[in-house]
Amino acid sequence: MSDLSLDWATDLEILRLTGSDIQECEDHIIVKTPSNPNYHWGNCLLVVDHTLVSQAQTWVSKFHQHFPNADWISIALPVMPKKTDDWESQGIVLEPLEVLQTNELPKSFPLPYGYQVRALEGDDWELLSQKEIEENLISKMYEPKEYEEFITQNNQIRKSLCQKGKAAWFGAFFDDELVANLGIVVCEATARYQSVETHISHRRRGLASHLLGIAARWSADNGCVNWVIATEATNDAGRVYRRAGFESVVGSVNAYKPPSFRHENK
Q1: Can you list the positions of beta strands (E) in the chain?
Q2: Tell me: the pLDDT tens digits for 115-164?
Q3: Residue 264: pLDDT above 80?
Q4: Which CATH superfamily is domain 116-249 in?
Q5: Do β-strands 253-257 and 93-102 pair in parallel, antiparallel, or remain unpaired?
Q6: Going by C-beta distance under 8 Å and a sequence separation of 6 or more, which residues neighbour residue 220?
Q7: What per-residue confidence (pLDDT) applies to 63?
Q8: Domain range list for the chain
């Protein structure tokens, strides 16, 4: 489906690389990831017909039909519905994504003093998992046991992609503590950034900007000539990406209802 936005076009390529089952129907796509059943955006629906985005009940029913055990709802829409009441009445949040793209190698910025950067390998993957699990225990966004299973499996998938040469994951370390990381996946000639994260106490120091450049050079060496990154439209990280040379392009909309655990622990 050539008219997919760049975020979902690359998402689907990455999901295929990691073994997800993708079924293309006339007006939607069904994505299933049996190896990681708690991955909400690996077990989801993608609506591709712009004229059907207001039919909330239809798509919610179809989601439950394909994912009867899911305690969340994850449906991607190509555009924001003109009327959102039917979605919101079901507790679903509609969140537009900002997608940024460049055909020029993203700018490189210096590494701040006191930090070391390297591609993750060996025990680094366990450090990444521990960091993500600990952050969820603090935020209480997801049920701890299910989230730990998701993170463990997700990082195994990331590690496998890296070992196959399809991706690379880079981390910034301060006194042996992993304080920032991001990944990048080769989708033919397009490089798609993944999971740009910086610990709150190390933000606004240029770590993400430096890692963006490191990952861009790696992907260029692996044949990429186009770079794509997606973030929530409300996230101020967009300024970091524009500074590196990215420009906004058309993105999609996430229609998402998190598990009830999240509401109980706000």
Answers
A1: 21-24, 28-32, 44-47, 73-77, 93-102, 116-119, 167-174, 177-187, 190-198, 226-232, 247-249, 253-257
A2: 999 999 999 999 999 999 998 898 888 889 989 999 999 999 999 999 99
A3: no
A4: Gcn5-related N-acetyltransferase (GNAT) (3.40.630.30)
A5: antiparallel
A6: 105, 191
A7: 98
A8: 6-97+253-264, 116-249
